[in-house]
Amino acid sequence: MSGHDDASEVRSGTQSVDRAVAIMECFRQDATPLGITEIARRVGLNISTAHRLMRALVSAGFMEQDPINERYRLGIEIAVLGQRALEQAGYHLAQPVLARLAATTGESVSLGVRRNHEVVVVERASSPQPLRFDHPSGAELHMHASAMGKVMLAFGEISLDAAVAQLRDLPSFTDRTVVDRTELAAMLLTVRADGFATNVEERYAGVNGIAAPVLNANGIARAAIG
Fold first, then answer.
1. pTM summary value
2. Is 80 strand, coil or helix?
3. Fewest C-beta atoms under 10 Å: which of 67, 82, 96, 200?
4. Coil vs helix vs strand at 132
5. Strands 118-125, 109-115: pairing kind
6. CA–CA distance from 79 to each of 59, 82, 169, 198 (Å)?
């Protein structure tokens, strides 16, 4: 086989992987199953190519197809790999601390890590109270409207102005959401001085939160507890 053929195979293989990843990304925000036409439209593929990739993903257990309506949903293998990823990262070691904090405060507790412009909840301990607010594992939170997000921005590796400038957008969720970047940077300066951040109805009306950073040896937040 020539070098040209080898390069073509690599490009083809990489393209297939990229397309498969794009297909699974379709299900990140959408909790409802999707049909093949909708999947193809979202990824920008023709129906036959999308169908071929879906067959491969179903075969691997990454996707499942409803036998009645033929719509697709994420497969159980995704959950298995996600759980393995959390175990290998060691986040589960924080669980006793989260449980103890939830029992002491009577409030729900979350451990979050940053992913791009969001905080992802990786571990949690629920409040023992019947009336409570929980972030489920895997929840994605906007950084500017989250106590965990703000504390991670305040204790990041770059300046506060640069950290705020890098945020993609600042959607408003309530009349308390801070959407002005100058105001947010000033708020983060206070967070850095205090060592903790609060969220007073900035994401959900009637819901308040507080968070502290989990710092490495250099004082950089690698996670946050809310």
1. 0.71
2. helix
3. 67
4. coil
5. antiparallel
6. 16, 5, 29, 31
Burial label for 119, CB within 10 Å (0-12, 13-18, 19+), is: buried
**Using CA atoms, how far apart are residues 28 and 169, in angstroms rounded to an integer?**
19
Going residue by residue through the chain, which has 226 residues, state the pLDDT in tens, using 9 for 90 and above: 555 544 444 456 688 888 888 888 888 776 789 999 998 998 889 998 999 998 999 998 999 999 999 999 988 888 888 878 777 877 888 889 999 999 999 899 999 999 888 898 888 888 887 777 777 777 888 999 999 999 999 999 999 999 999 998 899 999 999 999 999 999 999 999 999 999 999 999 998 999 999 999 999 999 999 9
Residues comprising the chain, all counted: 226
CB atoms within 10 A of CB 215: 14
Both tokens of 175, joined, read 């009349």
The rounded distance, in Å, linking the Cα atoms of 126 and 207 is 15
